[in-house]
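Q: I'm writing up a methods section and want to include an example of the input and output format. Could you take the sequence below and give the corresponding predicted structure tokens, formatted cleanly so I can copy it straight into the document?
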Amino acid sequence: MPDPKELIEKAERFLKQQMDMYGDFSMKFPDSTSLENQNLQKNNKPTKDQVREVSNNYQVETGQDSVQPEKPERELTKQEKIAACDTLEELRTLCENADELRTDLDGTNLVFGVGNPNADLMIVGEAPGYNEDQQGEPFVGEAGQLLDKIMAAIDFKRGDIYIANILKHRPPNNRDPKPEERKRSLPYLLRQIELVDPKIILCVGRVSATTLLNEDTSLSKLRGKFHSFHGRELMATYHPAALLRNKQWKRPTWEDVQKLRKRYDELGGK
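A: Here is the clean output for your methods example:
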């Protein structure tokens, strides 16, 4: 074993050589305590439970919550989407993308509604026909022309009122709307009524009246009087298309619309 004294002498000679070549310099040796602490840190890493405990203690002491990942936004339900429409244009856009409003006739166009968006009188029909589907506007065919004449007879122009249908798309062969079609379409129509906010609603045809009043009865039992409907008044009468086929119903229809005009004026309709 080398003599320690000899080793020290060699080290001193080596250091003196280095100082002669490179000038004065000093050396710092770590103490034993520092080395022991470093070894402990390397060999004693905290466990996941220890890290979690420290984090929880920090939250309790500081009152700060740990950062949580953002949750994805929940998709709105159909009812929420309808209720979120604040204008007729927003509702129309929603209807354009609502496949549930379509019937089993392919390639039809949306027939949303037409007229004064602030009308005090709103007319609700049953479903679009061929001409309505082609033009995207309700009541533009022969029945629509008769409706314009009836309204003109009680001093209403087409631009004074708002017109819509229970269904927004044409059913095949002009058949009556099916119960499931009416059920799918009704929430959209109810929102449309809320946005127009009329004082009186005139339902033309049995399907229109029974759908809004939720009554399974004949039109003859519903017409000739006013019904309460969501804070508004509702009257039912014959559909103009039915009048074209049944002339005997023109007289009772005329009586209905005269009552309608009188009540409209009493309610302060503009």
